Amino acid sequence: MTKRIFFTGGTGKAGRHVVPWLRDQGHHVVNADLKPLGCDGVDDLSIDITDSGQVFGALTQHANMGEFADGPAKPYDAVVHFAAVARVLLTSDAECFRVNTVGTYNVIEAAVKLGVKKIIIASSETVYGTCFAHGDLDPPGLPLTEDMATVPEDSYAMSKLCNEVTARSFQARSGIDIYVLRIGNVFEPHEYAEHFPDFFADPATRKRNIFNYIDARDLAQIVHRGVLTDGLGFQIFNAANDTNSVNRPAEELARTYFPNVPKGPLPGNTGLYSNEKVRRMLGFVEQHDWRRYVEG
Asked: At a CB cut-off of 8 Å and minimum separation 6, what does 25 contact?
């Protein structure tokens, strides 16, 4: 089951946990990023994803010096695309949209034309519109599922939604597997103690995220399950942990912070940002509930 994986953006907040996790499962991972990860057993390759030629070249060359002995460069089994401007207000709005959309087009185009059979791209919770909305915007329904409306107002979320359409179009033409992960609010292990007590004290600070979170290590498992699960065609998955990021029952959160939103069943601590589909279709099993790391 060992795979050769081309991973863009592995030096970022999420990628620096996902890449070594994939390596530890026995895969050969090449990290394509403007900055090196410097992770043992992972090859770093510096590329600008907004340059189509660089992307094609990177996917067709050797990953390291040792591969020259084996002859021509080996093809990749999977491409995982995380590289992006990470949110609004890091660049101009137009530059955020340009980098994210052009970069994603280049990566998917190259992978498809070079015969890669599995592509996983990072989309975002922000496509539902609530995170960076002007003012207070309710989600279309709770629990929030992948089939609900996506009408974002900001350049980052617009770029991610555009990337989903790009992925759908390439999949329709090629017939390969392309999975889109609408990644929730990513947390690294050290951040539980730093942030979660504040969330418990003031739950309203989590409203724009629909109270979701995704442990970076659980995100790694989701990516791995996507790499190993074949035959699903084009799919979109909310990538989040099972429950909410505050210590209140789901029904209470929904009633208090989203009183006018249509609601389905919300038993116990059910996540308002639903991960039911990724559990059902990719076999994701949460390992890092926040309750393991901080008392609530």
From this structure: 224
Q: Which two tokens stand for residue 127?
A: 């496509």
Q: How far apart are CA 68 and CA 195, in angstroms?
A: 47
Residue 165, beta-bridge partner list: none
Model confidence, pTM:
0.98
Q: How far apart are CA 154 and CA 28, in angstroms?
A: 36
Total domain count, the chain:
1
Q: Is the CB of residue 253 less than 8 Å from the CB of residue 272?
A: yes
Among candidates 161, 62, 167, 18, which has minimal Cα distance to 106?
167
Beta pairing, strands 177-183 & 214-215? unpaired
* Residues 6 or more apart in contact with residue 224 via CB below 8 angstroms: 21, 22, 25
Tokens 């609010």 correspond to 185
Q: How far apart are CA 64 and CA 70, in angstroms?
A: 11
Give 152's Cβ-side CA count (13 Å radius).
20
Through-space distance between the first and last CA atoms of the chain, rounded to whole angstroms: 39
Residue 27 and residue 228 in contact, taking contact as beta carbons nearer than 8 Å: no
Q: Is 275 exposed, middle or buried (0-12, 13-18, 19+ CB in 10 A)?
A: buried
Report the CATH number that the domain containing residue 272 is assigned in CATH.
Answer: 3.40.50.720
Radius of gyration for the chain, computed over Cα atoms and rounded to the nearest angstrom? 19
Provide the residue range defining the domain that includes 76: 4-292
Model confidence over 142-201: pLDDT tens digits? 999 999 999 999 999 999 999 999 999 999 999 999 999 999 999 999 999 999 999 999
- Please name the residue that has the structure tokens 């093809």: 75
Query: Do residues 209 and 125 lie in contact, with contact meaning Cβ atoms separated by under 8 Å?
Result: yes
d(CA 49, CA 10): 13
Which two tokens mark 77? Answer: 């089994």
